[in-house]
Design a protein that fits this description.
Number of helices: 5
Order of helices and strands: HEEEHEHEEHEEEHEEEEEEEEEEEEE
Strand content: 35-45%
Structural class: alpha+beta
Distance between the termini: 161 Å
Shape: elongated
Number of strands: 22
Oligomer: single chain
Length: 353
Amino acid sequence: MLRRALSPIGKSVVATMLIGGLGIALQAHARVRATVTFETDATVTETSVRLGDLAKVETDDAALRENLEALVVGPSPRVGDTWNLRSGSVRLAVRRERLRLGLSDSEMEFAGAEVTRVAVASQEITPQDIIDRVRPWIDERIGVMARADRMELDFASVLRPVVIPTGEWDAAPASTWAPRRVSSTLSVPVLITIDDAAVKRVTLALNLHLYAMIPVANRAIHRHEALTEADVEYVEVDLTTLNGGSPIRPFAEVLGVRATREIRAGENLTDQNSETIPLIDKGDQVTILLEAPRMSITTTGEALQDGRLGDFIRIKNLMSDKVIQARVVKERLVQVDLVQPDATRDRSVAIAR
């Protein structure tokens, strides 16, 4: 009788337990607040990988979704590289932050790929693109210095396209780069930036060509022979191929120039084989002039060296046999300044003695 009496009670208890267990299961399922589904491939644009870069976050809580998507789970790979990021390591990173986010393990669900391949969004720039950006600096630091009419650059070695992160980029030579001389080859360190932040440093190995119209002798010219316009023609040459001496500039007057040695027909006229004709030659008898307030003194002297307009040369005063420094002002005329230049300290008044 007791067994029969308890039988309905037992059935009721079992039913209650089943219903309660189902309620607990339904309640547990209801507590899942966010689902994270990992993608197979992901591309990032920043220096850190965030959960939103490699997974889809689903939740009805907008603030929670924003916080989960912004969660940093690791650093980004280098440009051009890829990383295989396992979902297990990401779950650990999420669990470390769950208290801050107000989540328990049971309130999150993970799905999708077990491994996500992560790469950085990148772009390629060609070597020619880089040259075009740095050309103004090279023009300023070399072209002007060499006084060339035009400049050409080409690559001395093969340079592959440069891979950098996406974004607006710029390039400029390193601030410390300054060529000491003009040569046919250049090695230019270049800094590439994105939004003013340095992202890459490359070195350009370049061949340099500087073209200018320079004078060339069209006949043989003897030492100390003065040049005339008929003796010269202008041709375009690459200044970097010249061996020694700077060419006389096209705008320089040919008149007033003489050869310092024998010049062959077809030879470039440079500062090593030609010079401005001196107004005074060594051994010339000259007039020495000293001018002072209310006083003008002249006497005769002998030039001890050649002199061009504005040069200070040594002059022997024929009246006193003393050697002084005098400035060339015109042909066979020198002037003594009241303050003698350099090591010569003879008083100007010595010319009057």
